[in-house]
Amino acid sequence: MAVYTDVPEPDLAAFLARYDVGRLLSYKGIAEGVENSNFLLRAEGGTFILTLYEKRVNRDDLPFFIGLMEHLAGKGLSCPLPVQPREGETLGELAGRPAALFTFLEGMWTRRPSAEHCRAVGAALAGMHLAVRDYAGERRNALSVDAWRGLFEGAGPRAGEVEEGLPAEIEGELRALESGWPQGLPSGVIHADLFPDNVFFLSGELSGLIDFYFACNDILAYDLAICLCAWCFEQDGAFNVTKARGLIDGYRSVRPLSEAELDALPMLARGAAMRFLLTRLYDWIHIPDTSFVTKKDPREYLRKSRFLRQVRDVREYGIEREGLPA
Amino acid sequence: MAVYTDVPEPDLAAFLARYDVGRLLSYKGIAEGVENSNFLLRAEGGTFILTLYEKRVNRDDLPFFIGLMEHLAGKGLSCPLPVQPREGETLGELAGRPAALFTFLEGMWTRRPSAEHCRAVGAALAGMHLAVRDYAGERRNALSVDAWRGLFEGAGPRAGEVEEGLPAEIEGELRALESGWPQGLPSGVIHADLFPDNVFFLSGELSGLIDFYFACNDILAYDLAICLCAWCFEQDGAFNVTKARGLIDGYRSVRPLSEAELDALPMLARGAAMRFLLTRLYDWIHIPDTSFVTKKDPREYLRKSRFLRQVRDVREYGIEREGLPA
Question: Which of A81, A114, A127, A72 is nearest to A252 (CA)?
Answer without folding.
Answer: A127
